Amino acid sequence: MPKRYFIISIIFLYLAISNTFAQVNIVPNPSFEVLTGCPEPNLDNQIFLATPWFSASTGTPDIFNACELSNFFGVPYNRFSGLYYQQSRTGEGYAGILVYNHNTNGSTRENLEVPLVQSLRINKQYYIRFFVSTSNSSVDDAPCYCDGIGAAFTNNKYLNNTGGSPVLTDLRPAIDNSGKMLSDTVNWIPVSGCFFNTGAEKNYMIIGNFRDNAHTLASPECDLSFPNTSYLYIEDVGVWEFDPLPDTVLLCKGEHKMFNGSFLDASYKWSDGTTDSTFIISSEGTYSVFADMGDCILSDTVVVIMMEEQPNLPTDTLICQGDKMTLYAPVPGDYEWSTGSKLSQIEIIEAGMYTLTITNECGTFTYESSVETTVCDCPMYVPNVFSPNGDGLNDELMVFAACDFPLKIKHFQVFDRWGSLVYASANDNIESIRWDGLSQGKPVSSGVYTWNMEYTIVLKGQTVQKNSQGDITILR
């Protein structure tokens, strides 16, 4: 599978703090070891014994375990009275599914499904991995191999009962083994990748081939003779969330912290070139670590805030009367505003002195902001009638302003009654607005037109956005 890059933001804590959350597998019974009973010989569809796994369709997934002594669903000998052989990767058991059947044009398939221990969270990144081994024996005249295996997630329990053993082409796999032939009948081969969960939370995982025969890579032997099918053993299924730590780390005065970026069996590279899983930081800044999983790379960013270098709130702020302004806490902690609010931000419309007290691991800090209000309106005059008839009187539409602040016109536009644009100023200077009643070189008809004007004024270095609109009547 080609390497893909995924970027998310995380914060690492002390090395002394365990990073085990990032190592928690949220797939229950991942190696199919916990059984409610031993598989019975000559009975299909016993995946339910490996609770809480079940079939996602009318297909018949199998469970294999060393406790089954007839060698039909045993380990290591199994299938067709022990003609097939595979040691378990861990423990004494594994599952098995049919992923390709040349003779049925894809209509005979099997899929495994399991509810996750915890939902995939929205906008979080996950690493997915399971192991497969192809089931074929030395008695097969023409072993059939294919590339068809992957994993998908669904919000709710999925079950396709449309008849037969359908291909679940309505599901989009989170990872897919497309293009890599699975022909190893001895070793356990990993199928893995990274998945960023967008949209809704996901509660169920499904393993199978989500492509029809036309889009599944199969060996030429699959169309020659029995068995014409590809059957895979499945082992050690895992899904791990890659968001182990909080989003914010504070450095108190004179403090150093060691960050731990370890994740499964990844190799690492930090933004300064070091390759350890840990990193010592003593100054404010943004630091990145890249965790190479072999088939995808996880990129994490460490954001460090030094308390003694934090800016104050805006100390001298001017806002327009009737407008709103938001004051934001500059650092994390427990908040106490002079307004009584305990939120990280407050919205204000009145002049006054606003005080914020923040208590965090580095101590207690007080910030102040003085807010003044002023009348910001720039009186704008746009005539409501003009007569572009060439008599030298009131032939052009002009705009006038009496403004004590720097003024810049973003645009002045005139529209006809159908909403079509008939005039637009081409300059940010108000004196440049001079409309002669022409549109694309032709006189417009008499009637009522609407205008809209967006402009900005500058108050003590702050840019304030303004908007005005009205109508104009043309007489000819």
Q: Short summary of the structure?
A:
By secondary structure, the chain is mostly beta strands. It has no helices and 36 strands.
What keywords describe this structure?
disordered N terminus, 476 residues, Jelly Rolls, 4 domains, 43% strand, 36 strands, 5-stranded antiparallel β-sheet, mainly beta
Can you describe what's shown?
With 476 residues, the protein is mainly β. It has 4 domains: 20-241, Jelly Rolls (Sandwich); 250-292 and 302-307, no CATH class; 310-374, Immunoglobulins (Immunoglobulin-like), CATH 2.60.40; 380-474, Immunoglobulin-like (Sandwich), CATH 2.60.40. The chain contains no helices and 36 strands. The strands form 11 sheets. Strands 1, 14, 16, 18 and 19 form a 5-stranded mixed sheet that branches. Strands 2-7-12-9-10 form a 5-stranded antiparallel sheet, with no helix packed on it. The chain is elongated, with a radius of gyration of 34 Å.
Explain the layout of strands and helices:
Elements: E1 4-9, E2 54-55, E3 62-65, E4 77-78, E5 84-85, E6 93-101, E7 112-120, E8 124-134, E9 150-154, E10 175-176, E11 189-197, E12 202-208, E13 229-241, E14 249-251, E15 257-260, E16 267-270, E17 278-281, E18 285-292, E19 296-306, E20 316-320, E21 325-328, E22 334-337, E23 345-348, E24 352-360, E25 363-374, E26 380-381, E27 385-386, E28 397-398, E29 400-401, E30 407-415, E31 421-424, E32 434-435, E33 438-439, E34 442-443, E35 447-459, E36 462-474
Parallel strand pairs: 1-19, 14-19, 20-25, 27-36
Antiparallel strand pairs: 2-7, 3-6, 4-5, 6-13, 7-12, 8-11, 8-13, 9-10, 9-12, 15-17, 16-18, 18-19, 21-23, 22-24, 24-25, 26-29, 28-32, 30-31, 30-35, 33-34, 35-36
